[in-house]
Amino acid sequence: MTVFAKRSSRSEEDPELNMIPIMNIFLVIIPFLLTSVSFFHIKAISTSVPVLADSSPSMQKQPEIKITVIVEMQPEAMRLSAIADELSAEVLAGYEQRIKLEAAGVYPVRELTEYLQSLKRIYPASDTIILIPDNTVIYESIIQAMDAARNFNESPLFPNVVLSGSLG
Amino acid sequence: MALGNMKHHSQKFAPPKLMITSMMDMFTIILIFLLFQFSEKPETIHLMERIDLPMSSAKMEHTENIKLILTQNGLHIGEDLIAQVNKGTIIGLDLQNPKASVLYQRLEQQFAKSAVESADAQPKNHILLLCDKRHSFKTINSIVKTAALAGYPNFQFGVLKE
Q1: So what's the architecture of B55-161 in CATH?
Q2: Does the ipTM surpass 0.90?
Q3: Least CB-packed of A52, A138, A141, B107 within 10 Å?
Q4: Same domain, A79 and A137
């Protein structure tokens, strides 16, 4: 009887896990991860500047009309317009808009997205936008306008953003 | 009597056990945190001053490019300071004569070098611009125009993931 009691008490003892190999693995993995860690993730927005090209106009017929949207970021307002070889001046004049700033330095990016969405519905092949900021516009506002132009709810709007200085 | 006490103590003494559970918890939390922050190519920028990049919804990864860094007080190529910036004006960069600037000369050298290195392949003609969000377009435009003149019309604007 006493022998049985002794055996049962032995089996109730908690088995001890050997943690040393696990600790060793942790001590190897953690320094490795510390060297590869990045506390800020840099992403990129592709853009280009207009360059002179010596190519002649393409004679191929475009199956779909492609328009190019021009966004002028002025100090008091955002001026929107569109250009396309296939469309008449009257039609293009209908796409001109001037949206006032919400506050000083705060550009109406929501209205810009709505405008671009409406154009994208009519001309789905269009993908280029020319952004012309005023000299005083800060970089952060330009990036916000680029974000608004590129996509809306994961669907692309005008992903090709060309940055240009004002001609005037 | 004293000896009897000592014997009693030595029988009771057990080596102290290390409480490893809390340490394991801590290691596990650190490990998970580091795994989330893991990057295949961690970005290292050694600057003497702070740079505030704008936030963006962009998801594109930047490619291997020439890195231009514009802080509030200086313009850098990689880690080399090439020009001072004073109130948004890049010292030594005149848009009437951009070819005289250090920026143009350095980029032109780089363009020639990469054209030789990748004679059969497409040379790298992208610039990754890391620019402080408070700079005006006037400052950025002067860099962009000069770089385009030196053979780099395509840019990638470095932004922070939202």
Answers
A1: 2-Layer Sandwich (3.30)
A2: no
A3: A52
A4: yes
